[in-house]
Design brief:
The chain is mainly alpha-helical and 455 residues long. The protein has one domain (15-450): Up-down Bundle (Amino acid/polyamine transporter I). The chain is built from 18 helices and no strands. Bound molecules: 4-fluoro-L-phenylalanine.
Length: 455
């Protein structure tokens, strides 16, 4: 049965507010920091193609499923899944899918805040002219100095976590919605400006376009395919209940198909634009596309150091990157906060403090993995690498897989028809085929191959 009462946390003031908030969740460090460096590490074109396919065939149907489940349950992901499972006469154990999502969000938030903190540090470096005329070596040095100083990283991590808690504490309309309305469009404009600068590098721009869009399948490994799929989940904020929580604040009459397509397109555009802004600089300065998580921190300063008004645009860019990360971090913490408020009767404010400070504490491991703890490894990975791998390549795809199975096989067709309310039957049936057969099969195969369990 569909619930007509809104969530106790309130709801988005309009369809656009939801689109902006969910796009705010989707567009973040994943698009601008992570996508370029993992595309670089996995050989470019072929990886990008697999990533785009994953967005269309796996990400989009799962996003629709998450929004649908959220709006139908009207509570935090755990309670929503429990309620819907009951309505559909499925096992109450489905609520544990909500739990695993909340755990994934918590771990992601812990390291996300550290990287966002690094972007914050860069705001000040850019505005104060540190990048002026900087060379590739100089830019690498600036980044290394920041990374190797645990105190500084810790201070920025703390600040970022605090601003995240502050917004979430203010609630859906006053906190979340207000913040994203202005930020997202501005970020988009600055990215276009940066692509314009990168295009002025002529042949290097062409080289970047071929790197990103000319697939060379000999460069792609099974692990690369798993990383591409994991990133499709990460970048669209899927598989952990964030979009489900946002869906629970969605007004009844909004078209889930339309909003999901809009969000997926906006998110993909931002990632591709980021790639087009960054790779020409990598090639023009003899840097390596595969240089890892420091890529944007080492390449973009070079661009800002050489364009007119670079101090201003550089400062603005990192400001917006922090905002993009902020609007994503909010959605990482929201499901857990909503759960505490609904189930433990704590105020929103208190819930934010509990969750935020625990994630902050776990984040210390990531802070140290860049410096004093760079030798502390498990399975050959530092804490940061391990958290990233575990969440993006294991927890989110598995979470997404079970969401697809639940929405496709355990929810009755009448219920999903009613909640999705897609006017054209062909689109509904297309979604149902994807979510029942295509998505689960693809996720299982890619997952097993990627972790080496399938030939
Ligand atoms: N989508 C965000 C990004 O691309 O940076 C990260 C993220 C946010 C992942 C929220 C998962 C999530 F629930």
């Amino acid at each position: 049965m569909s619930r007509s009462v809104p969530s106790i946390h309130g709801q988005w003031s309009s369809r656009w507010a939801f689109i902006l908030a969910a796009t705010g969740s989707a567009v973040g460090l994943g698009n601008i920091w992570k996508f370029p460096y993992i595309a670089g590490e996995n050989g470019g074109g072929a990886f990008v193609l697999v990533y785009l396919l994953c967005i269309a065939c796996i990400g989009l149907p799962i996003m629709m499923a998450e929004v649908m489940l959220g709006r139908r349950g009207r509570q935090n992901p755990i309670n929503s899944l429990e309620t819907i499972a009951k309505d559909e006469q499925a096992s109450p154990l489905w609520k544990y899918l909500g739990w695993s999502g909340i755990a994934a969000g918590f771990i992601i938030l812990s390291y996300y805040s550290v990287i966002a903190g690094q972007a914050m540090a860069y705001i000040f470096r850019a505005f104060s002219g540190v990048f002026e005329g900087v060379t590739a070596d100089g830019a690498e040095n600036i980044y290394a100095t920041l990374k190797q100083d645990p105190e500084r990283l810790l201070a920025w991590h703390t600040l970022f976590m605090m601003i995240t808690m502050t917004v979430v504490a203010r609630g859906v309309q006053h906190g979340l919605e207000k913040t994203v309305r202005f930020l997202m469009p501005t970020l988009f404009l600055i990215l276009i400006l940066l692509v314009g600068y990168a295009a002025s590098t002529g042949e290097y721009f062409n080289q970047a376009v071929s790197f990103l869009f000319k697939p060379d399948f000999s460069q792609l490994t099974s692990e690369g395919v798993l990383i591409a799929m994991g990133h499709a989940f990460f970048t669209l904020s899927l598989g952990m209940g964030a979009i489900m929580a946002y869906g629970s604040y969605l007004p009844k009459e909004t078209s889930i198909l339309q909003v999901s397509i809009t969000i997926a397109i906006a998110d993909t555009l931002v990632a591709l634009l980021a790639g087009l802004a960054i790779f020409p600089l990598v090639f023009a300065n003899d840097m390596q596309p595969s240089s890892g998580p420091g890529l944007i921190f080492e390449t973009l300063p070079i661009a800002f150091g050489h364009i007119a008004g670079g101090e201003f645009f550089g400062g603005l860019f990192f400001t917006l990157l922090v905002f993009a990360a902020w609007t994503s971090a909010i959605s990482l913490i929201e499901p857990a906060v909503a759960w505490l408020v609904e189930n433990r009767n704590v105020s929103r404010r208190r819930a934010c403090v509990y969750i935020g400070s625990s994630a902050w504490f776990v984040g210390l491991l990531t802070v140290f993995s860049f410096n004093i703890g760079s030798e502390w490894t498990l399975f050959g990975k530092t804490a940061f690498d391990l958290f990233d791998y575990l969440t993006a390549n294991i927890m989110l795809p598995l979470g997404g897989l079970f969401i697809a199975i639940f929405a496709g096989w355990f929810m009755k067709q009448d219920s999903s028809t009613e909640e999705l309310a897609i006017t054209r039957p062909i689109f509904y049936h297309g979604w149902r085929i994807l979510i029942r057969y295509v998505t689960p099969t693809a996720v299982v195969i890619i997952f097993l191959k990627g972790i080496g369990l399938l030939g």
